[in-house]
Structures are given as C-alpha cells and as structure tokens.
C-alpha cells in the first residue's frame, strides 16, 4: 500500500524512521525536555506533599523514585516524538535534512542498503511499516517503535544516488 502524501511545511525525511535514527538525531532541546520532565515529576510530588500531606510520618522515598522513573519515561517519549516530527517535516528540520542526505548518500556510494539489511519478505516489511508508521502520535495509548529494517519510508531514495 503506498504511503499517503501529506503536505508538510518542511521537507519529509522519513515517514517511518527507525528507533536508532530518531535517537541519534535528538537535539539539545530534546535532551533538555527529557531532563526537565525527569526533574519536574519528583518536584511535583514533593510540592503536592507540602500542600496536602498524605504520607504523615512516612518516607517519600518510593513515591519520589517512581516519579523520577515516570518523568524520565514520559520525557523520553516526548523527546522521541519531537524528533519524529522533524523527520516527518512537521517541524523545522534543516539540520536533520543535511545529516540524512550525507548519511544516506555515503551508504549509496558504498553500495549498502540505505535502511539496513533485512531477511524479511516484502509483505512482512510492508506490514511492519504499516504498523509503526506515525505510531509516535499514539504514545499515550501504546509506545510503539520501529525496530525493523524495511524499504517503506515514504520518500524518493533516488536523490541519494545522484
């Protein structure tokens, strides 16, 4: 099934970027988002405890540890989503466009597959792409990442070999 063409304000790099590519293209703002949410979650627990004490005489050690864990996980998902939005062309992505062109042009010159080698049949690759494409929009329901190598990325790859 062909990928639906969507008008975006910036160039589309990849409609189904792999987990590694998204994380490698985190910007400083993405790391700041992750750090801020990791710090804000336990601060919120402590602040709420000051206003409405629930754990009278009990330690807040476990709730604070859990809030750090949830804050870090939520911050990572938000940073991952922001990085994915740049791949999709929904946010400013000049840095990623340049980096993508250099990386994939080098792979094309070396004769290697642009999106990694795979042993999956074509129909399984298509199903994998359909399951993970735009999954970052549904993180509130189910965190789903693309760990599979496939050739269904919704972009014209001929630009890398010229």
Automatic annotation (TrEMBL):
All residue ranges annotated as the NADH-ubiquinone oxidoreductase 21kDa subunit N-terminal domain in the record: 8-92
Coiled coil: none
Record-annotated NADH-ubiquinone oxidoreductase 21kDa subunit C-terminal fungi domain positions: 103-160
InterPro entries given in the database record: NADH-Q_oxidrdct_subunit, NADH-UbQ_OxRdtase_su21_C_fun, NADH-UbQ_OxRdtase_su21_N
Record-linked Pfam families: NADH-u_ox-rdase, NADH_u_ox_C
Protein name from the UniProt record: NADH-ubiquinone oxidoreductase 21kDa subunit N-terminal domain-containing protein
Origin species: Circinella minor
């Amino acid at each position: 099934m062909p990928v639906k063409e969507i008008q975006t304000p910036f160039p589309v790099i990849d409609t189904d970027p792999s987990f590694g590519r998204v994380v490698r293209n985190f910007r400083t703002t993405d790391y700041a988002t992750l750090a801020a949410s990791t710090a804000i979650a336990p601060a919120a627990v402590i602040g709420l405890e000051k206003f409405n004490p629930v754990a009278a005489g009990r330690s807040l050690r476990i709730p604070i540890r859990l809030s750090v864990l949830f804050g870090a996980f939520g911050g990572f998902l938000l940073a991952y989503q922001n990085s994915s939005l740049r791949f999709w062309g929904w946010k400013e992505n000049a840095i990623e466009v340049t980096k993508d062109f250099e990386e994939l042009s080098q792979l094309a010159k070396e004769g290697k597959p642009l999106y990694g080698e795979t042993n999956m049949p074509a129909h399984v690759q298509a199903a994998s792409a359909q399951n993970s494409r735009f999954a970052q929009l549904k993180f509130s329901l189910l965190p789903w990442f693309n760990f599979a190598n496939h050739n269904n990325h919704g972009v014209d790859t001929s630009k890398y070999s010229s």
